[in-house]
């Protein structure tokens, strides 16, 4: 009888073990199934972004989970802080590159540049006002431009502000001003644009409570950063085709900024990475593609798509860094795109090697 009782206890313990293993693996299996279901429904270009937003909603609560099963002598690790969104942006970047930019280089883009006519007149027609404010170049950007062939800009140290503060008329009738704002500095002698602030009309309307389905009806025809900065660039130089660097200061976008933090932490072990320790990626890496598809990277994306006939074939590289280095107070996360003409060398050193994915086996639980 005792042997039968022992056998029963052994069977119960084995059943509990099997059940525990199944429950442990079930979330990851469901996770992979849900991801695959979302991927199955994505469409070119827009589908990848829908997928990214869907994942953010479905898995947002899991982002900050800590693995508490680790042994006491192992540092707790954060699980997949942005990995799903990162992979979505990689796929989106590849789609824009293969379906948007490469065809544009060959003169076969299905996204033609909008024809606004004379930039200054069209800016006024869309309710934009222009203001010039002399401004010194921040010291960390001086360090950046020391690495370029023309050195630190000494001319045109003026911040140009575009404010959408006047009422306007679009295809849907008379509209109120959106309060959109773009600030940038233009350096023709250095072939560079430095974008300082970007609050698009679309963003400002969404902040003011306008329903998403109605925003497009309330936008001025000229409203995207890529269009407005390009027309300002054309007005500042006789050779717009020489544009080489597109820099972005103090990135605050709630997709791009966490993405930069994740990449810097992965490749440098910290988010406080000064210019001298910068990380550079080309579009052969997942990191480069993810940054290319980020909301900030899309301005570069559309520059290349809409103005390929002017700029010619380019091989983009992106460099990211932190303006404060080791001091987190007042830090700014920045990126600069080196739009390298075909056959030329990059300005900011060798590109990073693509990160190798490592699978870590989950620690086993001891059953007492």
Strands ordered across the widest β-sheet = 1-2-5-6-7-10-9-8
Proportion of residues in extended strands: 15-25%
Number of strands: 10
The gyration radius over C-alpha positions equals 25 Å
Largest sheet: 8 strands, mixed
Secondary-structure element string: HHHHEHEEEEEHHHEHEHHHEE
Q: Name the poorly predicted regions.
A: 26-81, 355-368
Overall geometry? globular
The portion of residues assigned to helices is 40-55%
Structural commentary:
By secondary structure, the protein is of the alpha+beta class. The chain contains 12 helices and 10 strands. The protein has helices at residues 2-40, 46-59, 83-105, 119-125, 139-145, 201-207, 212-215, 225-236, 256-268, 286-293, 297-306, 308-311, and strands at residues 128-134, 158-164, 168-170, 173-175, 180-187, 192-199, 245-248, 279-282, 314-322, 333-341. A hairpin with a 2-residue loop joins strand 3 (168-170) and strand 4. The chain is globular.
């Amino acid at each position: 009888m005792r042997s039968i009782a022992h056998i029963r206890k052994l069977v119960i313990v084995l059943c509990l073990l099997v059940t525990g293993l199944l429950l442990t693996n079930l979330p990851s299996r469901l996770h992979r199934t849900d991801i695959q279901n979302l991927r199955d429904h994505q469409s070119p270009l827009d589908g990848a972004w829908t997928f990214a937003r869907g994942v953010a909603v479905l898995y947002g609560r899991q982002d900050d989970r800590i693995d508490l099963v680790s042994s006491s002598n192992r540092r707790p690790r954060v699980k997949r802080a942005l990995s799903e969104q990162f992979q979505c942006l990689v796929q989106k970047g590849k789609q824009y590159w293969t379906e948007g930019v490469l065809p544009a280089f060959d003169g076969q883009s299905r996204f033609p540049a909008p024809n606004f006519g004379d930039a200054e007149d069209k800016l006024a027609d869309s309710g934009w006002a222009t203001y010039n404010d002399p401004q010194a170049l921040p010291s960390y950007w001086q360090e950046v431009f020391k690495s370029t062939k023309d050195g630190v800009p000494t001319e045109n140290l003026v911040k140009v502000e575009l404010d959408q503060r006047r009422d306007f008329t679009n295809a849907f009738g008379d509209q109120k001003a959106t309060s959109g704002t773009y600030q940038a500095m233009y350096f023709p002698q250095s072939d560079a644009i430095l974008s300082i602030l970007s609050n698009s009309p679309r963003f400002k309307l969404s902040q003011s409570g306008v329903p998403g389905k109605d925003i497009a009806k309330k936008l001025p025809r000229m409203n995207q950063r890529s269009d407005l900065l390009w027309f300002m660039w054309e007005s500042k130089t006789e050779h717009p085709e020489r544009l080489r660097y597109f820099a972005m200061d103090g990135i605050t976008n709630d997709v791009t900024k966490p993405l930069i933090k994740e990449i810097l932490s992965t490749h440098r072990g910290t988010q406080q990475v000064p210019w001298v320790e910068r990380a550079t990626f080309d579009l052969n890496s997942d990191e480069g593609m993810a940054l290319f598809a980020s909301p900030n990277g899309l301005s570069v994306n559309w520059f290349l798509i809409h103005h390929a006939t002017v700029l010619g074939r380019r091989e983009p590289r992106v460099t990211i860094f932190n303006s404060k280095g080791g001091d987190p107070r007042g830090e700014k996360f920045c990126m600069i795109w080196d739009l390298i003409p075909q056959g030329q060398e990059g300005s900011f050193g060798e590109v990073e090697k693509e990160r190798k994915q490592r699978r870590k086996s989950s620690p086993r639980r001891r059953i007492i």
